[in-house]
From TrEMBL:
Native organism: Drosophila rubida
Cited Gene3D superfamilies: DnaJ domain
Membrane topology summary: Peripheral membrane protein
UniProt region (Disordered), positions on chain: 33-53, 108-141
Family listed: Belongs to the TIM16/PAM16 family.
Top-level taxon: Eukaryota
Main location, first listed in the record: mitochondrion
GO cellular component entries: TIM23 mitochondrial import inner membrane translocase complex
InterPro entries xref list: J_dom_sf, Tim16
Any GO BP: protein import into mitochondrial matrix
The protein's name: Mitochondrial import inner membrane translocase subunit Tim16
Cellular compartment(s): Mitochondrion inner membrane
UniProt entry tagged with the keyword Transport: yes
Key word Transmembrane present: no
Amino acid sequence: MAKYIAQIIVLGGQAIGRAFAKALKQEIAASQEAAKRAGGGRQGDKSAESNLRTGMTLEEAKQILNVEDLKSVDCITKNYEHLFNVNERSKGGSFYIQSKVFRAKERLDQELNAQQQHQKPKAEEQQAEEEAPKSRARQRR
């Protein structure tokens, strides 16, 4: 009898150990995938910071405003104004939905600003590289 109880305990421990190892592997894989999607490094940190500040991810903000591309600023503004006005409380709309629309627009604006700031240094570097050969040629003369 004691032999059977010991076998049950050992088999139960093994099953729990396997389940724990499998769950750990899945969590690691999910974490790595999330890091890839966030961009990793400094970009990932900035994206995570923006997510925490507004309380929503970039994907969620795009879904709320029904936008697929961040480059279409006119579409973002048009959808925002429409959804914000439709959900106005005086018109029988929902303040909760209106606030979600506002936060989505805020999150997309933050992302657009981050992209512009990221592109600025690149443009300055390119400009400096273009001017560098000219100044070297002048120095040789």
